[in-house]
Amino acid sequence: MLRHRLTQTRLPDMTDASLFSSASSSSHDQTLREPVAIVGIACITPSAQDTESFWRLLDRGERAPLRAMPAHRIPQTSAAAKAHLDAWRGSFFAEAESDFKRFRIPPAYRKSVSQMMLLQLRAAEQCLRDAGYPDKLPPLDDTDVYSGACFCFDSALNNALKVEGVRLAYEAAEQRSGDCEADLDAIRERLREHFGLSSHDRVGEMASSIPARIASHFGFRGRAQALESADATSYVVLEAALLALSGGQTKAALVIAGQRYDSLLPALALEKKGFASGAPFTANSAGAPLAEGATALLLKKLSDARRDGDCIYSVIRGAACARRDSPSGYRYGGDAALKYQAAAEACRQANISPARQRFIECALPGHAEESKALLTAMADLRHDDSVPLHLRSCVANLGYAFANAGLNAIAAASLALRYGRLPGMPQEDGQELLQRQNIDYGANGGEPWPQTDELIAGVCGGGLSGVSWHMVLSSPDAVAADVETAPVPQEPIAIVGVGGSFGPWRDVTAIHAGLWDGADGIQPIPEAVLPHRAFFSADASRPLSCYAQYGAALAQSEFDLSPYKIFPRRAAGMDKAQKLGLQCAAEALADYGLSRKRQRQGATAVFIASNLNLGRERALSAALHYPQLQALFAGSTLASYFQDAVAKQRLSPEEVDHFTFDSFSASGIAALISNCFQLNAAPAAVEAACASSLAALHNAVLALRSHRYDLVLAGGVELPVNIRDLTLCSAQMMLSQHKIAPFAVDADGFSPGDGAGMFVLKRLSDALRDGDTIYAAITGVGASCDARSMTAPDPQGQALAMRKAFVQAGYSPARVQYVETHGTGTRLGDIAELSALNEVYLAPERSGPLKVGSVKSNIGHTFAAAGSAGLLKTLLAIRYGDIPATLLRREMNPELPLAEIPTEPVTALQPWPLGDGARYAAVSSFGTGGVNYHLLLQSVTATHAAPDDSQYTAS
């Protein structure tokens, strides 16, 4: 029996007020948390456009119709791709939606907006209406929005194709003699006419723009972030929301996940992972058909939901995941031990015996080995085979919605609890169900919940990254009525290891030397990165060109992967961001001393900030769709520019292999790090525009404070010095024509920079106990979404994030001596940021001026890695007792509000004396969509006593 091969999970006597914790070796048990209620649900699928029809389809045990991928998604694709897809079926939306006016999207931006954006906006609207919005309005400042999605959107593919169109035409022109400038301009104009071109293009393709626009549309001012973890995306999105609610960081959380296939690439890549035409619980299934859709849930603490008189669909009482590293990359392992571990831990948190889960809804991918592993784990947990176990999977009804599969399952279980009915599940013709004693698969349609049963449901799922997850849901009547929320201890989080590489500086030693020397890492962009004849134009109005010549391109081009067990074919195709992230993680973990501290590792997670659509995915997607460019210019005098280039460079379906998906996944960076260092970590990618790094660190802080994890590697990586980003940012007029100049007169934008920064984090009490080297302690992280504009900075939104950080820190802004600003070097941005600082940091008890700086002056703007760069600089300043210079390239802007606090930009290396025995600092990051983060730091010496929970400020 499986139970004899595993350490038994003890079920301690806990109250129903516990929410969740990690299955870890924490030094003390997690503080009890309050259960979370689901008070609004929306489900949109190709065959069910609202929650009522979604439930009706499940209750009847019906199967959604399958169809070929719609022709409008793949116009003029290659003959080979068409032939390949003719027999391929899934549950796809037939037509594109166009709800622009309803969501107040201006006509000029509509070609820039993704269908995923519109789909998730519709789901958010339905969910909030279901919960009683606007009459029952959640608190605006304390409502978060979390969005999950996988794969590049149609807007990203269109952007990639129009930039690639110019590149391919230029390469063809290079083979000719004579002047081709007129032809290239004509090609640019035709691409603009067909695909559209606006200042909103880059905003529209970003995953984090979705939660930001949802927050803006409904007026919410809490956190807004997008997350991805392959087909465990639903779980990591829910986990982020549960941590924020449990940690007292928010009052309500809108959680949305969506799935579409706007490019051929994901469908072909997943086909290589086994997705076909099978179904869950069938003996020989290789994988279920892929599906599309979006599901939204509105979450509140149970006591708040009861107070507000909300309709409560279900109560989340336990949530856990387990993972084992796999050197072979992304694959379904069918690991019964992991499913047992996740289910046992979730039940422990819910204070129930696993046998009390008589109904389990399964987000299974349809692979037979996954179904068999689940049955093995559930049989071992039940202990009593005489009682029927009701298993269902809405995947059999709807198909496998990948990023959204988990939320579909949670919605199905919640509706079953609400209506007291077990849904039906269609059977696969000609495929035999897996037989187990007393297993009911609901083949005869929906049926009433057994009269003798208490209303408790399990929901489980897995992921290609090796994650197994489990949640315990119940009806509200099954939870004790006298739930009280315990104060949340805001324990400081220690940073105990650092790694980084930015522009010309390969590691932390080089970064330290460069910053302390006042070196300028921003240099002319190499011709190999930005071909000037094709893309550079001093005329900023020229379409599909770049007017900027300076950036901090990553000097490193080769990465040594030999220490890691990575298949050579996989290594050859890996995205450069994956390789850079791995290198910086290796430096951070070595700095921490992981190899000699594994006995203290405990439960581990890896949160990586990144653009959720890596460059390799865009490049491969565009290469599969190159025939669209041929068709666009067919019959014109310009057609010859594309004929040979497309034939040589396009990607055929046969070239997509088992490792293709692994090579372009953003969360693959986190999974790769875990696999290479045997962390068995839950992997996730986080995007919050240019504030992504601090968003990932905020998630890490909440996870550590809750004792969900004991060690977290968090950081950010992005490589924006490339043709596509330079072109799209030029269209948005974001770049400087010279070099970025924070705080300077006539500041005209930023210079892009490549880089990554990684950090190892632990609870301060654990770090002190273990004798770790501590760079500093994070005492607070505040976040907001200003909900006013997708692009313009808002001092009030920034100030709100700062105030939220100080609520956790327990000390006054007057103590902070230095702020590493976002400092993008735009006139409006610099003034807005300093105005926000004036609003929060002005205090009569301040003993000296507030020093400010911006590392972007040295290494440019690294987008998702920007907060990591600012944090790394600040940690080094705290450690070495000096504040390095911000390069002031022109005269200081006289309009900056510097006198009030007063504020002093640091323009030369200067010593940083200790204040009241410690150094206090802050780091700001702001992003497109009004996303704002503010992180507070305090130096820690070896003489500090291990902190006691009673000393922490409670939220």
From TrEMBL:
Belongs to the thiolase-like superfamily. Beta-ketoacyl-ACP synthases family. It comes from Hahella chejuensis (strain KCTC 2396). The keyword rRNA-binding does not apply. InterPro entries: Ketoacyl_synth_C, Ketoacyl_synth_N, PKS_Beta-ketoAc_synthase_dom, PKS_NRPS_Biosynth_Enz, Thiolase-like. This is Polyketide synthase modules and related protein. The gene is hapJ. The keyword Acetylation does not apply. One of its GO terms (biological process) is fatty acid biosynthetic process. Coiled coil: none annotated. Residues 33-475, 490-939 form the Ketosynthase family 3 (KS3) domain. The lineage of its organism: Bacteria, Pseudomonadati, Pseudomonadota, Gammaproteobacteria, Oceanospirillales. Keywords: Transferase. GO terms for molecular function: fatty acid synthase activity.
